[in-house]
């Protein structure tokens, strides 16, 4: 860690969106040649602060200097020419275009010509210098998530930035991909560059960063060298109160006969997708009442198919699946697969079991049920007629859990249930899942966060390719199984 | 030999029918690659036809042709103001702009007729023979014995292709049609790019309408665009949103329109009305054949949130 002056300095930044105050005098000072983590709950203002630095959002007040030069203009081009590039969490690649075209998209001058071969050469040069291997003519849509992120990074590196900012770079990566990314970021910093990354994961920040800054409610509440602090102080800074229990320890009453009643039973079940690709090789598996089966796996593994078969959302192509009639299911992509953002909570509640109802819909009953769900699960909402989009991500997820657990289903399946949630909401969600288990439901949880999975699972299966294997509850063993090494 | 002349005649008619469609479809292609469905093209076409007729009568076909383009562009501007600046629904504004164009031209035409009488046919561009090339049997007769406006269209296809795929602006325009947020984070303004695309679309559609007058009939009649604006959109879909595909699509629709000449020449006993209806029937067939394909720009028809 070498401190050679201040690479990025944001001072007293204010920003309000309508009635919401996103930033209330936030500051961020990053010494050049350091790896800096920016932490905070959902809505603390992390991404807004990054957008201000990257020229995507015009602040209402405050000062921004990059490499000791004050930045006046507020466009991405101004930020880039001052030496700062950003890697965004979502949607800054065009899937239908090639890698080279995506990189060229941010080059200046609308009337400049684009030559596919020159652009490919340039991408190759940047990639080689950065130590990545990437095909410049590949269509972005065909690349796996980790490779798409490397394209984002190459795009950001095209302007040869002194400061690189990344918004939740590990959210979509497997543990080993995330580890690779941090090795790369460390090497980048060692070449005298500066990196700021946003994360939800305290451990990730503590293990990889030199300095952490914590935002709470749009203000900077903590900046400290990692060696001078610890996880619980950071957690206190994030939450602003005595830390809540991050990951509960599994409590399980094994041995009783009731606990061993099989609820979800697969016998030689397989899944073959529309393209003829085997997604799930023959698998026999039982999930018992009162236990949590944890499912681990990197992107593209069998877990997507497995979870849908266990949730009764997809019939196996061969073999059998014996399932109870009602199964609660929380799919990963909340906004696409489990709620309709613009509809009210009552209507969203009515979605469950919609295919089985006939005749007139009893809206008064559904309204009562929604009111109970809101109260029972502590969902923060104006009332039951509020559109689902008006809820924060954590409250949306709590509402989905309330809906899926409302009729005490014999089985419950959840896919990355805490993805994108802040620490407090994530902890709430996990607590709800534990209480469903304690009530006697057979629970299946997939999570891309191995620590979280170990904190909730009673047994673990690991997906690699189309096959699924049970492993002991040991992070090292699971990690190796996730990449196919055993 | 007689057969070759017949084929040549048919292809010549096909290219002639394809020309206004080609201009309008190129315009629609540019707008749709920028994510905008502009069914107001029909209005731009008919305004282009009317303006070119009026101006060509005074100043000659060259200025008339240009005036047609500008008239089409002014309707494109109206569309852009509502859709891009005021973020109104594209289909509704497009329908309104189409009707505005048709109604405006009909009203202006009526005023002109009542004060000065029906306009006399204007002088039009004549087929321009190119040495050697025009002499090639069938091909020369079909493609290289056309008015100069058709040669302009030949040049426009590769030019638009170059602009869309070989300039940073073209990449930005396509990014706006696919993933507007990506264009924003790269520092482009989707609103500005869509406005430029809609002006270009209106201008090209206006030129398409003008060719009907200054390169073909020499007269104007109300509603002479006859749904070509909608056919242009079908051509874009049939051509899978590429300049090459659009050129082929325009030629196919031109060929179907030219069937009426062929049926007369060979004295085919098909009801005339059926032959006239074939381009519209082909549009329906083309749309049915394209069902389920995912080649359209991903953000096509979306109203963008941020200005």
Polypeptide structure, described:
The complex is a heterodimer of chains A (486) and B (307). Chain A has 486 residues and is an alpha/beta fold. Helices cover 33% and strands 25% of the residues of chain A. In chain A, a hairpin with a 2-residue loop joins strand 1 and strand 2. Helices cover 73% and strands 1% of the residues of chain B. The mean pLDDT of chain B is 90. Chain B has a two-stranded antiparallel ribbon with strand order 1-2. Chain B is globular. Chain B is built from 13 helices and 2 strands, in the order H-H-H-H-E-H-E-H-H-H-H-H-H-H-H. Chain A binds chain B through residues 54-56, 75-77, 80, 86, 88, 90-97, 101-102, 104-115, and chain B through 165-172, 174-175, 178-179, 181-188, 297-298.
Topology, element by element:
The complex is a heterodimer of chains A (486) and B (307).
Chain A: E1 6-17, E2 20-31, E3 35-39, H1 46-53, E4 61-66, E5 69-70, H2 76-82, E6 84-87, H3 99-105, H4 116-130, H5 145-157, E7 163-167, H6 175-190, E8 194-199, H7 202-208, E9 211-216, E10 219-225, H8 231-239, E11 262-272, E12 278-288, E13 292-297, H9 303-310, E14 318-322, E15 327-330, H10 334-338, H11 345-350, H12 363-376, H13 393-405, E16 411-415, H14 423-438, E17 442-446, H15 450-456, E18 459-464, E19 467-471, H16 475-482
Parallel strand pairs in A: 3-8, 3-9, 6-7, 7-8, 13-17, 13-18, 15-16, 16-17
Antiparallel strand pairs in A: 1-2, 1-4, 4-5, 9-10, 11-12, 11-14, 18-19
Helix pairs in contact in A: 3-4, 3-5, 13-14
Chain B: H1 2-33, H2 41-59, H3 61-85, H4 90-116, E1 128-129, H5 139-143, E2 145-146, H6 148-166, H7 168-178, H8 180-185, H9 190-217, H10 228-238, H11 243-257, H12 259-265, H13 272-289
Antiparallel strand pairs in B: 1-2
Helix pairs in contact in B: 1-6, 1-9, 1-10, 1-11, 1-12, 2-3, 2-4, 2-9, 2-10, 3-4, 3-9, 6-7, 7-9, 10-11, 10-13, 11-13
